[in-house]
Amino acid sequence: MKNTVLTLQKQKEQGDKIVMVTAYDYTTAKIMEEAGVNTILVGDSLGNTILGYEDTLSVTMEDMIHHSAAVARGVKDTFVVTDMPFMSYQTSVYDAVVNAGRLMKEGRANAVKLEGGVEFAPHIEAIVKASIPVVAHIGLTPQSVNAFGGFKVQGKDVEAARKLMEDARAVEKAGACMVVMECVPAKLAEKISRELTIPTIGIGAGAGCDGQVLVYQDLLAMYGDFKPKFVKQFANVGDVMRKGIKAYIQETKEGTFPAQEHCFGIEDSVLEKLY
Ligand code: KIV
Q: Separation of 115 CA from ligand 1 center, angstroms?
């Protein structure tokens, strides 16, 4: 079944949890679709997991377009959401629309995601007016790591919780089709999820959200630089890869790889004629 803004909305209404996962390339996107996720996020977390940066701030529009287009080529039915990188929308509403358009035209995304609440409602509204679905991202917004002074749980006191509620209401009113909530206390995220009519997707926001998202290298134990509290490792693909590569090294050194079945043949008579 093709996943669209309409089917994702219906999932919320029917209490059917939405499953989102990150992917940044063709092969992984195909595997995610075969496994049956509803939506793939081409996150700017690729700055950390693919490009090896400390944070997401150096990720460019060109990086996002390149990876988004690769993911889009790998899927047929999965809804592809692509992140707007740092400074591609914060600068003006005009820049937000132009860059969202590029992610759709060149990156072949089905929706764009941007970080921010009340302050970015005008940007969301303008992008939506251009017929581009927008996923908002509130709570811990990693592009603001320097302003936050680190990666911290958001919305813990009354003032911060109120701000988060206001952010959620503002992005829904501006026309966002979904909202990601990152590092938000579970009970607050559940309250917001009940109040909003659009689906909420949690990451470190508890089970009361309408769906969940995780970075795939985190959930498959492939990325060891740090492990946030909210990550569950569902499989140890990192270990499987290390074992596979070690076996390849060993057999190459021993000369047992490549074996006969991996080699191309030639008639001896051809070889004999060489001298
Ligand atoms: O970039 C990303 O992967 C994200 C998720 C952590 C929600 O924004």
A: 10
How much of the chain is helix, strand and coil, in % rounded to 5?
A: 45, 15, 40
Q: Mutual orientation of helices 158-174 and 186-195 as an angle, nearest 10°?
A: 30
pLDDT in tens, the chain (275 residues): 999 999 999 999 999 999 999 999 999 999 999 999 999 999 999 999 999 999 999 999 999 999 999 999 999 999 999 999 999 999 999 999 999 999 999 999 999 999 999 999 999 999 999 999 999 999 999 999 999 888 888 889 999 999 999 999 999 999 999 999 999 999 999 999 999 999 999 999 999 999 999 999 999 999 888 889 999 999 999 999 999 999 999 999 999 999 999 999 999 999 999 97
Predicted TM-score of the model (pTM): 0.96
* Burial of 47 (C-beta count, 10 Å sphere; 0-12/13-18/19+): buried
**CA angle in degrees (0–180, nearest 5) for 86-210-114:** 10
Q: Exposure of 53 by Cβ count < 10 A (0-12 exposed, 13-18 middle, 19+ buried)?
A: middle
Residue 33 annotated to the active site? no
Amino acid at residue number 44? D
Q: Which helix (H) or strand (E) holds 132?
A: none
Angle at 256 between CA 255 and CA 258, to 5 degrees: 90
Among 89, 151, 215, 217, the mutation site with the greatest number of ligand 1 atoms within 8 A of its Cβ is 215
User: Which stretches does DSSP call E strand in the chain?
Assistant: 18-22, 39-42, 79-83, 111-115, 134-139, 178-182, 200-203, 211-214
- Check: CB of residue 109 under 8 Å from CB of residue 118: no
